UniProtKB/TrEMBL annotation, chain A:
An annotated GO BP: monoatomic ion transport
Lineage of producing organism: Bacteria, Pseudomonadati, Pseudomonadota, Alphaproteobacteria, Hyphomicrobiales
UniProt main location, coarse: membrane
Gene Ontology cellular component terms for the protein in this record: plasma membrane
Signal peptide (from-to): none
Domain of life: Bacteria
Keywords: Antiport, Cell membrane, Ion transport, Membrane, Transmembrane, Transmembrane helix, Transport
Ranges where the NADH:quinone oxidoreductase/Mrp antiporter transmembrane domain occurs: 122-406
GO MF annotations in UniProt: antiporter activity
Pfam families reported for this sequence: MbhD, MbhE, Proton_antipo_M, Proton_antipo_N
NADH-Ubiquinone oxidoreductase (complex I) chain 5 N-terminal domain: residues covered: 59-106
Transmembrane segments: 72-93, 105-122, 128-147, 159-181, 201-218, 225-244, 264-287, 294-311, 317-342, 363-386, 398-423, 444-475, 487-510, 561-579, 591-609, 616-635, 641-660, 681-702, 740-757
Designated name of the protein: Multisubunit sodium/proton antiporter MrpA subunit
From TrEMBL, chain B:
Family: Belongs to the CPA3 antiporters (TC 2.A.63) subunit B family.
Compartments where found: Cell membrane
Organism: Phreatobacter oligotrophus
Chief place where the protein resides: membrane
Membrane topology: Multi-pass membrane protein
Name of a matching Pfam family: MnhB
Name of the protein: Multisubunit sodium/proton antiporter MrpB subunit
Gene Ontology CC: plasma membrane
Coiled coil: none
Domain Na+/H+ antiporter MnhB subunit-related protein residue range list: 5-123
TM region(s), chain numbering: 12-29, 35-52, 64-86, 106-129
Keywords annotated in UniProt: Cell membrane, Membrane, Transmembrane, Transmembrane helix
Length: 766, 131
């Protein structure tokens, strides 16, 4: 099936999703399901190490194509996006049943899914950027689903600003990369191997693109938006912020790893920020009591792990990254939905308070438990394989001791989070809120149950996803074919020891979570000094900057606007003239005659304008300038021009004086001496510039080809001897038609503006 | 602006300005002049007449609102190009059935320019006139 068709089919699904979702129909999940099925048909090709490339013409003048490509990496993402998407759509149809603005919500969710699909399938950097920004835009709308809440607005704006700012940096990086590689095609860049890494601008490319990827994937210190985005409805949180969108940054890094994987800046940047994010996310997760926030911070920790793994050189790290990617998507989406069910049924998500839901919600508790076991990394679940692989990759790294030392506590926190999200609320003696709770309907439970089941199935039968998806994906990440055999049991290895240590540490922390949390929550460092505060300070700074510069630039005085415009014109034109060495003085031989009197008259009246104390004398003086210019035209053989200039001047003076007679600005419009000096200086600068430009122009030899043509053609072709009029009404009649249309429209527009100003006056005087 | 001198003199200015503007409009194809200049002259004459008398008096004299004048002018200019189209020639190629008398579609076009200019100036002006 054509990939273009799949992407556009997904986009076109939005109106249908709006219609189905607005009726809270579970059928809304069929769209993503169909797409999932379509992507499944690519698995055989990809499992054989093949790929599918489709190229359509888009912007040929820039060499940009609408190219789509399916290989292991993009197929893994596409299956996660559509598969988990189907579960989310189904879940949302029950969870949000009867909520407001549902059609818009489902349309946005479908558009988000489509842009994710487009982003991971794009085989052109420009196309990728377009879909990338679309995901930012749609996620902004999804996070801001309930805009009446100020916290929602802030979170939506924060997520948008951070990801889009990163996206701009990425766009710059993409342009530099496209220039360095000579192509914007991603597979074209990949086929050059690591050669581009030797390009002098490689460090700049890496840093710029990493900015975009880090912002999207919530790497520290840009992570706060992801946790704040938990104000979104749970289906959105589950979808965007744990399974798909935040992994787009990881996807891009994975995609470019074959090109830059050997570069020291790449390795250093990814490993450093990945490790910092991992530890930050884990530390912050322990402080929270809201289940969704706990899960969100553990997502940040997981994203850090993924970035760390991609930065780690070697094929094993690639296999570990891809395995952990799938593991995480499965359990995180499952646990998010379970947290949503708990909230929906018990009315709260407070992990420190909820107990004993197991008795009234047996099915949900079973699903949550399976998901949590995978998250904790216990055999025989898929999470165990993932965690063992992560440790194995870490042990293979030269900096193994450091990486493992950071991974063990992080994974221990994962165990704690798993316990909180999948066990604590269900176990123990029921609290009051638990007694009324009960298992939700199949629409809400089917998705998380299926994902939990997959986590268990892949754990027992890793070959199901091993050679068909993970190895091709890992091959795309490392740039080389990968051979590895996923297995549940590796024997007694250092990894197993690390796993056991992790579990033990996790269990200890879990038992004393209440005390640890209370102590961590007591420290206000993150509230006072954390990046979320920094964001607020930045926004406040931006506001005051805007206020300051608005007051400076837009002070409401027409006079200062005009003065600045003239100054800019004078400075810009004279600078260009000087820098381009355009200064030229023509020979004045035989030119100066009686017109010198006109020149003197012009100068005198121009000085009179600048010296005028009030607006009346200013207008009259300006009129004299205009008449003098008209006389110049007349003596230089342009009677039509002179004629027009006379009429315009006369009309302008009459109208100006007529209007000013009615205006209230007679008294206060006297200019002070410094003001007149300032205006005179501006006028002098502009006049000098115009004179220099004119001198440069008339220094050029005159080409009379056009004059000769019009002189010869005007009578035979247009039956007229006045060349100017012939040009206006005949040779360039279409131009004139456009001009009079503009004139008429300008008058109408001015009338509309003036009518608007008139209204309040008329209302006052009946 | 309601001065006696302006009031009295403008009585004379208006007809002179209108006649002169039409003269300028008609001679434009061969001598300095044309629709644009003619329009400006007529507008100046009407402005002088209207300033002391106010908006309602101006509307009464005109019998056609300034906005309608813009519309008529633009339509005339547009229509001047249509005969050429019907003859299979490019739009706005002017036809000269009576070249000796100086009559052709170019004149219709110029009259369109003339009316549009008058209409535009007066549309703008009418908002500053006392009603």
């Amino acid at each position: 099936m054509s990939l273009l068709f799949l992407v556009f089919g997904a986009l076109a699904y939005a109106p249908l999703a709006a219609w189905l979702g607005g009726r809270s129909s579970a059928v809304v999940a069929v769209g993503p399901l169909v797409l999932f099925g379509a992507f499944l048909t690519f698995v055989p090709v990809v499992a054989d190490g093949g790929h599918i490339l489709e190229t359509w013409n888009w912007i040929p003048s820039l060499g940009v194509t609408a190219a789509f490509r399916v290989d292991g990496l993009s197929l893994t993402f596409a299956l996660l996006i559509t598969g988990i998407g189907a579960c989310i759509f189904l879940y949302a149809s029950a969870y949000l049943s009867g909520a407001e603005r549902l059609p818009r919500f489902y349309a946005t969710l479908a558009l988000f899914m489509a842009s994710m699909i487009g982003a991971v399938l794009a085989d052109d950097l420009v196309l990728l950027v377009v879909f990338w920004e679309l995901t930012s835009l749609t996620s902004f709308l999804l996070i801001g689903y309930r805009p009446e809440n100020p916290a929602t607005r802030r979170s939506a704006q924060q997520g948008f600003l951070i990801t889009v700012t990163g996206g701009l940096a990425m766009l710059a990086g993409v342009i530099v990369l496209g220039t360095a590689a000579g192509t914007t095609s991603i597979s074209g860049i990949a086929s050059q191997g690591g050669a581009i890494a030797n390009h002098p601008s490689a460090p700049a490319i890496i840093i710029l693109i990493a900015c975009g990827a880090f912002a999207k994937s919530a790497q520290a210190p840009l992570h706060s938006w992801l946790a704040n985005a938990m104000v979104a409805p749970t289906p959105v949180s589950a979808y965007l912020h744990s399974a798909t969108m935040v992994k787009l940054g990881v996807y891009l890094l994975a995609r470019l790893n074959p090109t830059f994987g050997e570069h020291a800046v790449w390795v250093g940047l990814l490993m450093t920020f990945g490790a910092i994010t991992m530890v930050t996310g884990a530390a912050l997760a322990l402080r929270e009591t809201d289940l969704k926030k706990i899960l969100a911070y553990s997502t940040i920790a997981s994203l850090g792990t993924l970035v760390l793994l991609i930065g780690t050189p070697g094929q094993l790290a690639a296999v570990a990254a891809m395995t952990f990617l799938i593991v995480h998507a499965l359990y995180k989406a499952c646990l998010f939905m379970v947290a949503g069910i708990i909230d929906h049924e018990a009315g709260t998500r407070d992990a420190s308070f909820l107990r004993g839901l197991r008795r009234t919600m047996p099915l949900t508790s079973a699903v949550g438990l399976v998901g949590a076991l995978s998250m904790a990394g216990l055999p025989p679940l898929f999470g165990f394989i993932g965690k063992e692989l992560v440790y194995e990759a870490a042990f293979a790294d030269p900096l193994a001791w450091l990486t493992v030392a950071l991974l063990v506590p992080t994974n221990a926190v994962m165990v704690v989070v798993a316990g909180l999200a999948g066990w604590r609320a269900f176990a123990g003696e029921p609290v009051a809120a638990a007694s009324t709770a009960h298992d939700p309907g199949p629409a809400m439970l089917a998705g998380p149950a299926l994902l939990a089941l997959l986590g268990a199935t892949f754990g027992l039968l890793p070959s199901l996803v091993g050679s068909s998806l993970i190895l091709p994906a890992a091959a795309a990440v490392s740039g080389l074919p990968v051979t590895y055999k996923l297995a549940l049991w590796h024997g007694f290895t250092p990894m197993l020891v690390a796993s056991l240590v992790t579990l033990a540490a996790g269990a200890i922390i879990y038992r004393s979570w209440d005390q640890i949390r209370a102590r961590l929550a007591g420290t206000s460092f993150f509230e006072d000094k954390g990046p979320d505060r920094a964001y607020d300070h930045l926004m406040a700074g931006l506001q005051s900057l805007a206020v300051w510069q608005t007051g400076l630039i837009q002070n409401g005085s027409l006079r200062s606007y005009a003065g600045r415009v003239f100054l800019v014109i004078a400075a810009g034109a004279s600078a260009t003239l000087l820098l381009r060495q355009g200064l030229q003085i023509p020979s004045f031989q035989g030119v100066l005659g009686a017109e010198i009197i006109l020149a003197a008259l012009l100068c005198i009246s121009a000085i009179a304008v600048t010296a005028a104390r009030n607006i009346f004398s200013g207008i009259v003086s300006a009129g004299i300038v205009g008449f003098a210019v008209a006389l110049v035209f007349l003596f230089q053989g342009a009677p039509d021009l002179a004629f027009t200039q006379f009429s315009v001047e006369a009309l302008a003076i009459v109208i100006f004086l007529g209007i000013i007679g009615r205006m209230p600005f007679r008294e206060r419009d006297y200019r002070t001496r410094p003001e007149r000096l300032r205006d005179g200086a501006i006028a002098l600068a502009l006049g000098l510039t115009a004179t220099l430009v004119m001198l440069a122009v008339i220094s050029q030899p005159f080409n009379d080809r056009l004059s000769a043509f019009f002189r010869d053609a005007s009578v035979p072709h247009a039956h007229g001897r006045n060349i100017v009029n012939v040009i206006i009404v005949d040779f360039r009649a279409l131009d004139t038609l456009g001009e009079i249309a503009v004139l008429g429209l300008a008058a109408l527009a001015a009338a509309a503006v003036l009518a608007g100003l008139r209204k309040p006056v008329e209302e006052k005087s009946p | 602006m309601n001065s006696l001198i302006l009031r009295t003199s403008s009585k004379l200015v208006l007809p002179v300005a209108l006649v002169f503007s039409i003269y300028v409009l008609l001679r434009g194809h061969n001598e300095p002049g044309g629709g644009f200049i003619g329009g400006l002259i007529a507008a100046a004459g009407i402005t002088v007449h209207a300033l002391p008398r106010g908006r309602d008096a101006m509307m009464k004299t005109l019998r056609l609102t300034p906005k309608a004048m813009i519309g008529v002018g633009l339509l005339l200019a547009l229509a001047a190009g249509i005969p050429a189209l019907m003859g299979g020639e490019p739009y706005l190629t002017h036809l000269w059935p009576f070249p000796a008398a100086g009559l052709g579609t170019a004149l219709i076009f110029d009259v369109g320019v003339y009316l549009t200019v008058i209409g535009s100036v007066l549309t703008f002006l009418s908002f500053y006139l006392e009603s």
